[in-house]
Fold this sequence. Notes:
single chain; mainly alpha; globular; binds heme C
Amino acid sequence: MKRHILLGLLLSAVTATAETAPAAVTFEEGAVAQSLTGVAGDPAEGAKVMSNRALGNCVACHTVSAMPDVAFQGNVGPSLDGAAERWEEAQLRGIVSDAKMTFDGSVMPSFYKTGPYIRPGDAFTGKAPEGELPPMLTAQQIEDVVAYLLTLKE
Ligand code: HEC
């Protein structure tokens, strides 16, 4: 009986620390096979992150036809329509975490990396803020965005 309680405590401790820190993410040819959190992404939250200018602001550079209510979509990057047909989940996780691991020298920001990095708004000035900064998105926000991208099947 007691042993079961201990095991339960141990398991919850393991799950609580399951989040992968930015520096510990393993890329294989740009892809990240393992979930950053072990918690399934929520596509609805991912859509919010992508269209929110203070968060991912992906629409500043990409168009997404499935988001007709989001004004001023950009075309610096390709349209994300059908992304789920071009990329596997692991590849999308890699692109969203650090696009430079897939596209060498990309202007797309590295969203899951500790700074200094170039923020989307600074992309054209090339100015990076000084010092260590937290990642632009949390591990769960990355998973949510990946879950949303997986819904984009043309
Ligand atoms: C500053 C502009 C910029 C921002 C902001 C940006 N991207 Fe990108 N993204 C690009 C560019 C440019 C490419 C094309 C690859 C390259 O040459 O760098 C790209 C490529 C991609 C691709 C692969 C495109 C394909 O073929 O389907 C995906 C997926 C993607 N971005 C997702 C996102 C998501 C999700 C966000 C927000 C969390 C985001 N991007 C934010 C510029 C941007």
